[in-house]
Amino acid sequence: QVQLVESGGGLVQPGGSLRLSCKASGPIFNIYDMGWYRQAPGKQRELVAQITRNRNTIYKDSVKGRFTISRDNAKNTVYLQMNTLKPEDTAVYYCNRINLAPWDWGQGTQVTVSS
Fold first, then answer.
1. Which of 9, 61, 85, 93 is deepest in the core (most CB within 10 A)?
2. φ, ψ dihedrals at 3, nearest 5°
3. Cα(84)–Cα(63) distance, integer angstroms
4. In whole angstroms, what is the distance from residue 39 CA to residue 22 CA?
5. Burial (0-12, 13-18, 19+ Cβ within 10 Å), 45
């Protein structure tokens, strides 16, 4: 079973930036399409960015132009560069594969955008 470990979250002021990382265990990471999800308090988990194994990317409209997803298959890691952060980006962020049944969810990483 693949294990996912997210990191890089924190408290940042509006307009600030963070870079999230998600490291996956297992030798076959590179064949999967991956996504970054987030879950705000009282809301359902939502997919905000996805990257295929061929590095094609798709973004939720509300983060387009501000977030960038990337992957390093040699390191089994997916990244989410988040710029111009807004208070509404506050959530716990998770990664997982997409287009197939998800692996067990990691602990996520908390992102709080507040002045």
1. 93
2. -110, 140
3. 10
4. 16
5. middle
Question: What are the angstrom distances between the C-alpha of 16 and each of 77, 78, 99?
Answer: 23, 21, 31
Q: Do residues 22 and 37 lie in contact, with contact meaning Cβ atoms separated by under 8 Å?
A: no
Helix (H, G, I), strand (E, B) or coil at 53: coil
Tokens of 63: 């983060």
Q: Cβ of 94: how many Cβ atoms within 10 Å?
A: 22
What would the two tokens of residue 3 be? 């294990």
Per-residue pLDDT of the chain (115 residues; tens, 9 = 90+): 889 999 999 999 999 999 999 999 976 778 899 999 999 999 999 999 999 999 999 999 999 999 999 999 999 999 999 999 999 999 999 999 999 999 999 999 999 999 9
